[in-house]
Amino acid sequence: MNNQEIKKWIKNNLVMQEEARQITGQSVSAFNQSVATGKIIPFIEFGESRKTRLYLKADLEEYARKKKSAK
Question: In this structure, are strands 14-15 and 44-46 parallel, antiparallel, or unpaired?
């Protein structure tokens, strides 16, 4: 896979918290709680003191489906 293919895959498959929350339909605090309890797991995480987390869209969509069906 070359750099352009990697960039395309990242743009199509990974999101940051704001878009992740939109996919799951959660508030900031609810989303953070889901991450803290391990219900949502970042695909990759960078940084020590100030973390940057990227989430896999497919995981978030599955989480949202399960959350809706549990209601």
Answer: unpaired
**Going by DSSP bridges, is the β-strand pair 44-46/52-56 parallel, antiparallel, or unpaired?**
antiparallel
CA 27 to CA 58: how far, in whole Å?
19
Q: How far is residue 61 from each of residues 28, 46, 47, 51, measured CA to CA in Å?
A: 17, 23, 26, 23
Q: Residue 38 region, left (φ>0) first, then alpha (ψ -120 to 50), else beta? A: left
- Taking only the tens place, the pLDDT of each residue in 29-40 is 999 999 999 999
Task: Report pTM.
Answer: 0.89
CA dihedral 71, 40, 59, 42 (to 10 degrees): 170
Rounded CA gap, 65 and 51, in Å? 27
